[in-house]
Amino acid sequence: MTYPENLPLVIAFIPLALCSIAATAIIAERALVFARLRRPRAVVERLAARSSDALAPAELEAAAAKGGFCSAAIAALAAHSGRAKPLRDEAATIALAECAAPLTARLNGLATIAALAPMLGLLGTVTGMMFAFQAMESHAGPVEPAVIAGGLWQAMITTAAGLIIAVPCLIAHAFFRSAARARIARAERLLSRFSLALETGGEHP
Q1: How far apart are CA 84 and CA 41, in angstroms?
Q2: Is 196 in contact with 154 (CB distance < 8 Å)?
Q3: pTM score > 0.90 for this model?
Q4: Cβ(41)–Cβ(71) under 8 Å?
Q5: Which domain holds residue 186?
Q6: Has residue 165 been placed in a domain?
Q7: Does residue 2 fall inside a structural domain?
Q8: How do residues 140-191 score in pLDDT, each as one tens digit?
């Protein structure tokens, strides 16, 4: 039984093309999210530096409006300013987790594509080699190198395509994950300083 010569390419490249489109969409969407991400203003940073001074809840509420992506967490801290520090910090942690969720969204999908694309390329490689050997079997007379080369060429190009998709996905995943962690860590430090500053004169109740 004979098959179209380019069937291995079709088998491998359809899912590879879908992976490429999905990866491009995720990377573009993540880049847009981080480009629109608002950082805390300098006045908020200066206010947070007063961790050894008393901080009025009204000052914290005013800072929440300028707190960038962690504004909701600062507002939660201000709303629980009269509570004990552990409860206040817990409320801020929960609010920050909700604020940070959009930063890490879809990164698992990007990692999945990075792992899946080489496997799909390998599928094309195996399929191409199978078709190359099938062509050798059905060929009458001495086997010419060109008969084998066609299948091997198809096998190699699908592997290369899978790697071409996977490498940018890995780089983008590492970049966005690092950027998200850096922003979350910065927000955590900001909230910790605010929580300390809410303690009157730096003394804990």
Answers
A1: 27
A2: no
A3: no
A4: no
A5: 7-202
A6: yes
A7: no
A8: 666 666 666 666 777 788 889 999 999 999 999 999 999 999 989 888 888 8
